[in-house]
Amino acid sequence: MNTETLTLNDIISESLKNSMTYAEYRALVTTLVEEQSATGNDKSEAMVAYTQLNDRRMRRWDKTAKVADATKSTIENFDKKVTWLVISESWCGDAAHVMPILNKVAELNDAIDYKIVLRDDNEALMDQFLTNGGKSIPKLIMLDSETNTVLNTYGPRPTVATNMVQAYKAEHGMLTPEFKEDLQRWYNKDKGQSTIEDLVNLLK
Q1: Is 0.70 surpassed by the pTM of this model?
Q2: Rounded to whole angstroms, what are the CA distances from 13 to 9, 107, 111, 197?
C-alpha cells in the first residue's frame, strides 16, 4: 500500500491488524530474551541487553504494581469502549516501566482494549504521533473502539518524568547516563502511581 495516500483512519486500521495483546507482547519479549535478540531494526548487543533488562523489569511490575481501591472504582466506572493502541519496542526503558501499568489499569475494565504494535514495523503510524518531532515510545493512542477516531494520546513518559526530562535538558542540553540512572530510580520509587494518575485523567 502507498502510505502517502492512506488516511489516518487507514493507517490505524492497518496497525490494529498487526497488533498484539499485552500477554502476546510479554511472551514475545521472553522469547527474544531466550534467543538473545530484540524487536526493531537494531538488534545490536546493547538492544539485546536492554531487552533482557526490560523483561526483568516488566516481570517485576506485573507482580508488584498495585492500583489503589479508590482509583479502581474510577477506572471500573468508565463506560466508553476505547482501544489503547500502544507503540513500543522491547529495548525501550520507559516502555518497560509504563506498559505493565497500562495493563493493570486495562484489566480493571472490559471497555478498555489494550493493543500493542512495534514501532519499526509500523512507521506510518509512528510518523503520525511524533513527540516534539521524535519517534519517542511508548506512545499510547486512545481510540474510540467503534470508529477508530483518536480521542487522546499519552506518553512516552508519565507527566512527572516528562517534566524531569525537560528540566534536565533545558539546563544541560542533553540527557546524561547519570540522569538516566536517576530516572530509573524514580520509576522504581514511584511504583507506577504517576502513570496510573495520568491514565485516570485520560479516562475522564
Answers
A1: yes
A2: 6, 23, 19, 29
